[in-house]
Amino acid sequence: MNSLLTPKRITVNGLAFNVLVEGEGPDVLLVHGFPDSHDVWRKQIPALVAAGYRVIAPDTRGCGDSEIAPGVSDYGLGILVSDLAGILDALGIDKVRLVGHDWGAAIGWAFCMRHPQRVDRYAALSVGHLTAYARGSLVQKLKAWYVLMFQLPGLAEWVIRAWNWRFLRAFTGFAEEWPGWRRRAERPGRLTAGLNYYRANRSLVLGRRLPDVPVPVMGVFSTGDRFLDERQMMDSARYVRGPWRYERIEGVCHWLQLEAPERVNALLLDFFR
């Protein structure tokens, strides 16, 4: 479907963002993670549009066809939140139903903290509240070993590219997306931009208490996730002051919206209603 659509170019914070806007009705903002682009939502967009929603799906800074910011500090969480707010402002949107996955979920949690009046409800896929993640179990710490490796400029890029990108393929373990990930990562500056999300936000793993979220939240976790422990999502209930709902999808990998789209779509549509 996406191949037939022409994304908009929206300039925010000095960068041109690639933003897919499709459908008519209440607005749904979809925020992707690493190493994805807005294309990771290709199995959700038709279902949401058919259900009467307008979908806004940006490539976040440095990803997909959005422009790359030059420095590590340009990828701090506050700036990433500001990008989303700016995109909504440019489209004249006051309030959205928000969905985030992976880094997009982290940005989504922070957006709910800073702009709760702009979020009707929030669906967090895979990544829980940032305090729950930072204070996660030993299992979570072990699963997040790669975060330390990604802190090493130059060396991390070399390891990921080495032996015909073997690390990236083995690390992600999801063959369906491998060709697209490699195609995007090979473009100049794109791999480093993606790693800068981790480098600019090291403080998120220190366990500092961040604000509670006052909006309704649905956390969705897939039991085959190799990067995240289920407890960090379940414990997010402690940091949500609005209604909390938890859903588990059995036997599905980290990219649950691609491996189990019918289940994810049904959950989103039910939650949004």
Provide keyphrases for this structure.
273 residues; alpha/beta; Rossmann fold
> By CATH's scheme, which homologous superfamily applies?
Alpha/Beta hydrolase fold, catalytic domain
Order of helices and strands: EEEHEHEHEHHHHHHEHEHH
Helix/strand structural class: alpha/beta
The CATH topology is Rossmann fold
Shape summary: globular
Report how far the terminal alpha carbons are from each other.
24 Å
Query: What is the CATH level 1 assignment?
Result: Alpha Beta
Strand tally is 8
Low-confidence runs (pLDDT<50, min 5 residues)? none
- Strand arrangement, largest sheet? 1-2-4-3-5-6-7-8
Q: What's the architecture, going by CATH?
A: 3-Layer(aba) Sandwich
Kindly state the percentage of residues in helix. Answer: 25-40%
Radius of gyration based on Cα positions:
17 Å
Total count of helical runs of at least 4 residues: 12
Tally of structural domains: 1
Q: How many strands, what sense, and barrel or not for the largest sheet?
A: 8 strands, mixed
Q: What is the mean pLDDT? A: 95
Which band does the percent of strand residues land in?
Answer: 15-25%
Describe this structure in words.
The chain is of the alpha/beta class and 273 residues long. It has one domain: 3-Layer(aba) Sandwich (Rossmann fold). The chain contains 12 helices and 8 strands. The chain has helices spanning 45-50, 77-90, 103-114, 130-134, 138-143, 145-149, 155-172, 178-185, 190-199, 230-234, 256-259, 261-272, and strands at residues 8-12, 15-22, 27-31, 54-58, 96-101, 119-125, 217-222, 244-249. The chain has an 8-stranded mixed β-sheet, with helices on both faces. Strand 3, helix 1 and strand 4 (54-58) form a beta-alpha-beta unit. The two termini are 24 Å apart. The relative contact order is 0.16.
